[in-house]
Design goal:
The protein is an all-alpha fold. The protein has 15 helices and two strands. A two-stranded antiparallel ribbon has the order 1-2. It is globular, with a radius of gyration of 30 Å.
Length: 381
């Protein structure tokens, strides 16, 4: 079984490696050689951090290459080993303040990922004895983070509007992703035979026979509640066989379709998660599925299994989108004896009201009872 190139990163990496064989453009020969050695080691899984051993994916390798391009841009022909702590910290401070800008003149929205990748590169430099001082030890990714990343949030009603207005084939896949809550990269690795006969269950394997990962975390079997009928129609429409991949549209074309449809239906305003409607993408559907399923399961373990989460971190993250708040009221502060006494007073009040002959007497009784209750609550506080 051939390894899948879902987002084209394998092809892009192979083309980049071929182009870089003669050296990286605008790099000194010295820095070019260091960069290529760094990338080759991480491609093979050599001199990688103890916390995360193994080969790096083409997508990660392209990001790490970009890190070296980033350093080369700001430090020019200076040997990478000669960059000092003050220079590096000054660079990140300038990025965070907006003084240091991108090549197009735009400011950096966040520098946390740059910090992470530079620390990765410098760690390799130390493990390979190219440098002895860790000039990144005082850099913390969290110090340069702009908080939670923005994404596109649609309510359950808006998601229904989106699926109702989507083209038939896309409708089935959108509904399936929202129903299952799986990661887009997992969905793109599914074959038709990963479903049961009536498409009411799907199994996301941990790995295939060729060693390729399917599930990011662990193998799980998910019950589908809203999408089976649409999936059966989709399979029939494209005449898919057992050994065919489920998702036919490419990831880029799928995201483009989502952006276009969402903009047509909802405009380009900002959503509750700060992303704008016209930037809707596949992974946003997973986020919204997490919100939808969070309060449908009686325990956290159930929704964590469905979503493929190993910790409750994401559960806590989604809480803010469920309208949850501090719901404690004054009456929650009262003891059982207090409540019994107040209920007795209310019954006595009802009896006195029923025996009162005039409206004026009723109002007096209500006022006295109200003032008494207010005084008792203040004393409890």
């Amino acid at each position: 079984m051939q390894r899948l190139d879902i987002n084209g990163r394998i092809k892009q990496w192979n083309e980049t490696k071929k182009r870089d064989k003669k050296g990286l453009q605008d790099f000194s020969k010295h820095n070019s050689e260091i960069t290529l050695d760094f990338l080759k080691d991480f491609e093979l899984g050599i001199h990688t951090p103890k916390a995360k051993k193994g080969r790096r994916t083409p997508a990660t390798l392209l990001k790490l290459r970009g890190t070296c391009l980033f350093l080369n841009r700001f430090f020019g022909k200076k040997d990478f080993e000669k960059i000092n702590k003050i220079e590096l910290h000054s660079l990140f401070d300038g990025m965070a303040s907006g003084e240091v800008k991108k090549e197009g003149g735009h400011i950096y929205n966040g520098t946390g990922d740059f910090v992470k990748n530079v620390k990765t590169f410098w760690g390799w430099m130390m493990r390979t004895k190219k440098v002895s001082e860790d000039i990144t030890e005082d850099l913390a990714r969290s110090d340069f983070s702009n908080g939670k990343p923005a994404w596109v949030y649609l309510t359950h009603e808006q998601m229904k509007t989106l699926t109702d207005n989507a083209r038939g084939d896309y409708r089935a896949l959108i509904l399936f992703l929202y129903d299952s809550g799986m990661r887009p990269q997992e969905a793109y690795r599914l074959y038709v035979n990963d479903f049961n006969e009536d498409f009411t269950e799907v199994t996301i394997p941990d790995k295939r026979e060729n060693g390729e990962k399917v599930s990011k975390t662990f193998e799980r079997t998910i019950k589908l509640k809203h999408s089976p009928a649409h999936l059966r129609a989709y399979i029939k429409q494209f005449d898919l066989k057992k050994n065919d991949l489920l998702v036919v549209p490419t990831q880029s074309s799928f995201n483009k379709y989502l952006r276009t449809l969402s903009k047509r239906l909802f405009g380009n305003g900002k959503t509750k998660a700060r992303g704008t409607y016209d930037r809707l993408k596949l992974y946003d559907i997973r986020h919204m599925a997490g919100i939808f399923w969070k309060d449908k399961y009686p325990t956290n373990n159930g929704v964590m299994y469905r979503m493929g989460w190993t910790t409750e971190k994401m559960l806590n993250y989604y809480t803010e989108f469920l309208g949850e708040r501090d719901k404690i009221d004054d009456e929650d502060l009262l003891t059982k004896e207090d409540k019994n006494r107040y209920e007795s007073d209310i019954e006595k009040l009802k009896e006195r009201i029923s025996n009162s002959a005039t409206k004026e007497e009723m109002m007096v009784l209500f006022k006295k009872a109200f003032e008494k209750t207010q005084k008792q609550i203040i004393e409890i506080r």
